[in-house]
Input
Amino acid sequence: MRKAKTRKGSSAAKRKQPKTVDEYLAHVSESARATLDQLRAVIRAVVPRGATEVISYGIPAFRQKRVIVWYAAFSNHCSLFPTNSVIERFKDKFRGFSTSKGTIQFPLDKPLPVALIKKLVKARIAEAESSERA
Output
């Protein structure tokens, strides 16, 4: 019988997917924890009062009817996932940060751009609300 192949360093191979935000947070490294806690607090300050935290795609997210944004910690950065359309709309504001299709990465050794994060989350909330009305 052959053993299933897993990629070295794959987080799925190292641990099972968390079912709650508390489970996720329990596995965040000490080096990423302060940045992730700050990112989470900034998001929480902007999302609607009734929004809840859930696990979606294996990472924490804030949800109200649908997911508003996701956030996560990695070995050398924390990421905010406000969707590709929001990233595209603000791409000129990301000097000094790595981005990909739907995420912006914040290095652990630099201060979080709180005002920018708030703008991104507010833009995502507006986008989610307008798609609900449509």
Observations:
- Strands lie at 52-56, 59-64, 66-73, 77-81, 98-100, 103-107.
- The two ends are 53 Å apart (CA to CA).
- Helices lie at 11-14, 21-26, 30-46, 84-89, 114-133.
